[in-house]
């Protein structure tokens, strides 16, 4: 029991689900941000028509996915109160919530924020032939990052794949002059 309480006291990145409709006026991530919690939601741009006018708006890549950096003891009462907010649970465990290591999450957030237009992929979308050469980035906003390039035929841009293991992969554009092949 002591180990369990120790985990609840630490601030961690919890993987959560928001079961509200995609067009809800106040999705869970906005509600949690209003409570001064650190929340990350992978966003993408899309064109929508409002009153006959086409505008570009930023929407969640996956409407039900959000990451919350908080203590479990603080999150539990909120999850109980908001019926559409849930933890994502690890498979083959009894109610153990999914978490992401702080280092992995910070690396992912930094890479996505440094890129103008990141492309997101769910685990089943990337095939082995899409993984290109191993590289290390030297210089620029992504200095020190290493990984594999996204191999896409006919693409003018070099994209580095940064992932949250078993959850989400982002391909972010990298300036070719900063790339060193390993």
UniProtKB/TrEMBL annotation:
InterPro entries associated with the record: NGN-like_dom, NGN_dom_sf
Q: Point out the signal peptide segment.
A: none
Listed SUPFAM superfamilies:
N-utilization substance G protein NusG, N-terminal domain (SSF82679)
Taxonomic superkingdom: Bacteria
Pfam families per UniProt: NusG (PF02357)
Swiss-Prot/TrEMBL keywords: Transcription
Does the keyword rRNA processing belong to this entry? no
Location of the NusG-like N-terminal domain: 12-108
Q: Which GO terms describe its biological process?
A: DNA-templated transcription elongation
Question: Does the keyword Transcription feature in the UniProt annotation?
Answer: yes
Task: Identify this protein by name.
Answer: NusG-like N-terminal domain-containing protein
């Amino acid at each position: 029991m002591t180990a369990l309480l120790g985990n609840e006291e630490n601030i961690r990145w919890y993987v959560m689900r928001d079961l509200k409709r995609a067009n809800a006026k106040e999705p869970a991530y906005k509600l949690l941000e209003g409570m001064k919690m650190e929340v990350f939601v992978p966003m993408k741009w899309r064109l929508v028509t409002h009153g006959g006018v086409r505008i570009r708006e930023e929407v969640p890549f996956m409407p039900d996915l959000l990451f919350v950096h908080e203590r479990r003891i603080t999150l539990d009462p909120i999850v109980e109160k908001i019926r559409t907010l849930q933890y994502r649970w690890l498979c083959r465990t009894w109610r153990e919530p999914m978490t992401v290591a702080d280092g992995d999450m910070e690396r992912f957030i930094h890479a996505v924020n440094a890129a103008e237009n990141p492309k997101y992929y769910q685990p089943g979308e990337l095939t082995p032939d899409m993984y290109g050469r191993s590289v290390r980035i030297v210089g620029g906003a992504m200095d020190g990052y290493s990984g594999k390039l996204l191999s896409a035929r006919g693409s003018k841009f070099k994209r580095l794949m940064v992932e949250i293991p078993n959850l989400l992969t982002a391909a972010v554009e990298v300036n070719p002059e900063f790339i060193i092949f390993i």
